[in-house]
Amino acid sequence: MHLLVLGGTSFVGRAIVEDALRSGAEVTLFGRGRTNPELFPGVPRLIGDRDTGDYTALEGGSWDAVADVSGYVPRHVGQAMDALGDRVGRYLFISSHAVYERTGVAPGSDENTPRRPPVRDTEELDEATYGPLKVACEDDVLARYGTRATIVRPGKVAGPHDTMETFTYWVRRAARGGRVALPADPAQPVQVVDSRDLARLVVQLLADDRPGVFHAVGPAEPTTLGELIETCARAAGTQVEIVPVSPDGAPRMFPLVRADWTTQQRSAARAREAGLPATPLEVTAADVLAWDRARGEPPLPFGYTPEQEHAALSART
């Protein structure tokens, strides 16, 4: 398989490229060449810029499939499709669960869950626009490629090289052991999918030339936020005591905390049937812990600082 990856050197894209190369695919990367330029030294790189609309490097060549990892707004997707035309067989777009309506969703919701209205009049990515912009991107890919289009909607992705680092917060915190402040209900369901499982699904869908829309969610067995923290502790060889604390004063967008529990209970049945693996959560946690320690555990952008957590625990007792 000749595969073009739009992106491919940061987290999800990196995992897809690694899996594709292991499967024997011939991979070409398209991007600015700025993120992790040392990766994949033997893989051809086409230099361009989706923000400025520079797709000149795509004017020649043809591929069996393209994996679009870096399309966030309709202009990105439209210009890429214009540049590629019919010189690609299948167009796989990495979307998001943010496309879905957030009310009236039942546990076990599938890929037919109603989506939010598309947005096309802005390119500003925030909580309100990210999902609707992805909806517009999905619509455009399906309109252009029809049965040659594939949409993958990941949930929260976890694994080494995670740029969001929300799962990393709990891995690192559980590794310290002791009393762990949780400004939420430990019984909250949580879904995380290992980046390598997501990559395997993407490459398998392309190898099978399979159309459709697929949830990429995990782990294999339902888990709660409290159980996830305890699993991270087992991976680190520590023991934790989870202490529910008041959310008042906690940093906003606290890692993996969600008010809408049913959105953390989506069905992965279609993706499992298509080849989505199920890496045990403890394996994902151990691999993230090893990666985080190897890079020197830099400051994380989310969650409590040690001082904030101490204050939250002190207020609880």
Describe the structure.
The longest helix is centred in the middle third of the chain and has 16 residues. Helix 2 links the parallel strand 4 and strand 5. The chain has a 7-stranded parallel beta sheet with strand order 3-2-1-4-5-6-11, with helices on both faces. A two-stranded parallel ribbon has the order 7-10. The radius of gyration is 20 Å and the shape is globular. It is built from 9 helices and 13 strands. 42% of the residues are buried. The model has no long low-confidence stretch (mean pLDDT 96). Helices cover 33% and strands 18% of the residues. With 317 residues, it is α/β, with parallel strands linked by helices. Helix 1 crosses helix 5 and helix 6 crosses helix 8.
> N- to C-terminal separation?
59 Å
Q: Beta-strand percentage?
A: 15-25%
Oligomer state of the chains in this structure: single chain
Q: Low-confidence segments, ≥5 residues, pLDDT <50? A: none
SSE order, one letter for each helix or strand: EHEEEHEHEEHEEEHEEHEHHH
Keywords:
317 residues; alpha/beta; 7-stranded parallel sheet; two-stranded parallel sheet; 9 helices; 13 strands
Brief account:
This protein is an alpha/beta fold and 317 residues long.
List the helices and strands and how they pair.
Blueprint: E1 2-6, H1 12-22, E2 26-31, E3 45-47, E4 63-68, H2 74-84, E5 88-94, H3 130-145, E6 149-154, E7 156-158, H4 166-176, E8 178-182, E9 189-190, E10 192-194, H5 195-207, E11 212-216, E12 223-224, H6 225-236, E13 240-244, H7 269-274, H8 281-294, H9 306-316
Parallel strand pairs: 1-2, 1-4, 2-3, 4-5, 5-6, 6-11, 7-10, 8-13
Antiparallel strand pairs: 9-12
Helix pairs in contact: 1-5, 2-3, 4-6, 4-8, 6-8
